[in-house]
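User: Please write out a complete single-protein record containing the residue sequence and its fold in token form, without commentary.

AI:
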Amino acid sequence: MNKKIRFFQSINFKIALVFALMLLITLEIVGAFFVRQLEQQNLSSFKQQIQLPTYIENSLSDQLVRNNTSSANSRIKSILSDVNNSNITEIRVIDSKGTVRGTSNVNDQTVVGQKTTDNNIKNAIYNNRSYQRDVYDTRDNTRYYVSIIPLMSSSGGNGNSLVGVLYIRASLEGVYQSVNSITLIYLSAALIAIVLGLIMSVVISRAITRPIDEMKRQTVQIAQGDYSGQVRVYGTDELGQLASAVNNLSVRVEEAQESTEAERRRLDSVLAHMSDGVISTDRRGNINIINSAAREFLDVDEEQAENASLLDVLNIRDRYTLRELLEDQDEMTLDFSHEGQDLILHASFSLVQRESGFISGLVCVLHDVTEQQKEEADRRQFVSNVSHELRTPLTSVRSYIDALVDGAWKDPAVAPNFLHVAQDETERMIRMVNDLLSLSRMDSGTTKLEMETVNLNELFNYILDRFDMMLKTDDNPQKQYHIERDFTDKDLWVEIDTDRFTQVVDNIMNNAIKYSPDGGTITCRLLETHNQVIMSISDQGLGIPRKDISHIFDRFYRVDKARARAQGGTGLGLAISKEVIQMLNGRIWVDSTEGKGSTFYISLPFEQFDEEDDWDVD
């Protein structure tokens, strides 16, 4: 009696095993080469995809050389937000001093203005060289590709110069996931081929059950959301038709799923790029969708907002109930201002309603109206100030004129004094109207500057000489003062509008004389540093209280209103001075200690100028 050969001892199994091993080795060798080539190709393609267009790099370079850091940072943020490359995780712009000027990460804007701590960025700035490297972040177990590109600018006139670097950080997980997915598919196909070869060489009967097993696996993949596989069709019999039906089902389900995902991604993209905040709730008022703008407005993260009540997030529970919002969708204004930041939001509500009339939720749209509210308040304050400032001299003029009409003009002792007061008040109103017209033209941008290159040392000295001369020619001056000069010996040539700059210095000098004690010293300094000309005018007056320093350049603002009006001030001189200096691309500020005096500073851009350049002949 022959001993029954077990299946694992049969020649059929051994032949199938040898065939399977040979097939496995062959497929592994081919697969290793294929996967390696695929990985290199995908990495190369990925690195090309994350390269930014040249015009974006040029735009960023132009912003880094601008003097107005705040405006440049705002423009850099706008440029980075316009970059639509889903492969890039984060883009940072760092200037040549190592300061972060902008980042595309809306959740990490606090790094703007800080010094970078990345040694690779510092080396790229110091060595003026590009840097590329694949790194592994242990914090989130993610592989990244980092590219640091120098930003060059030729605006200086001395050839290209480094103005900063562009830091691009892109996650490589998608690339490796794609490679791993293809590798998995390849290995699965290899494994299936080996199994099929083994089964075909051992048991022919498995040819009937094999398609059924494959269809079962495919349906399981469909249930798990994987539609990548296809059932092999072996013939046109019932099993072949069933396999074709499963494949068609897989394709249809995949198309429907992709359509749903595309719509969801489109909605997410629209919500993410909206400047207005959008919040969607369920019928109980719990938040199920909130975009990034709304989270930023309300200062909440996604985890905090998820399933939270809309009434709590908007902080209106003490004023409204959910039923009131559902029954009457009134618009409202919400004040989220806090120390250091003003934020006023306009909230509008609408219902999410089915065709049957069933209310399934509520949508709230938040619009930032902070600037509108501020402009409206400034407009009301401006009208109030103008009305108040004009009412005082008009009332005074009317009172004196009424007295003259009533017969005071016949009294030679009082009539000239009354007329003199009316004349002074009229002149003050004329000066105020002229100042208002100047500010209006500056606000509308219609003011034209007559720019010319002048020696600031000589111009400043000439203006101060006029004040010395007024004191010498006045036989009975109201106040004695002494002007002390501290100028650099170097000639400082700057491009300015001479008349308007003289107006600014006159305003500051007149204030210094008004508020200095009799016999006080007014110190005027002029120096050059870091491509800037710094002027300062210091007095020994009463100084400015700390609470008033931030408002000293506001229109109609006076620290001592009664004294300023008595001395004929309009409250617009420093406001005009600030506008003029800003038109000259400069900056004006004040440093004051109450009881010890004030110092006004003016900073103007300065470039080295050689007088011999004007005489060069080609």
